Amino acid sequence: MQIDGYVLAVPETNKDEYLALASWFDQAMIDHGAIEVFEGWELDVPDGTVTDFRRAVAAKQGEKIVFSWILWPDKQTADKAHDAIHEDERFRAMTSFPFDGKRMIVGSFTPLLGLRRES
Hints:
Layout: E1 2-11, H1 15-31, E2 36-41, H2 53-56, E3 63-72, H3 75-87, H4 89-92, E4 105-109
Antiparallel strand pairs: 1-3, 1-4, 2-3
């Protein structure tokens, strides 16, 4: 299993545009084998003493933090999906994004511990 994680700063005025892009991208990831995709919009992101989400992405006044992840069955599926999305004509046609991609944090992780409450 693999988890791809993302943290980024999105101007609050671009929330709808970000949601439209994320909806397309996330559905494409599901179509290419992702198990689950999650997009979280800032609700309460406190300033830390040494570091925090806002400083990590150099968030500016008026920007909200987005915390996202994609759960994959394995690294091979994730790699193939990312290659496919970069070849997708819709992705290649994009000339701008509703956030500054240079300040986005991206990483892939293998699960270490996972707990879930049974309903």
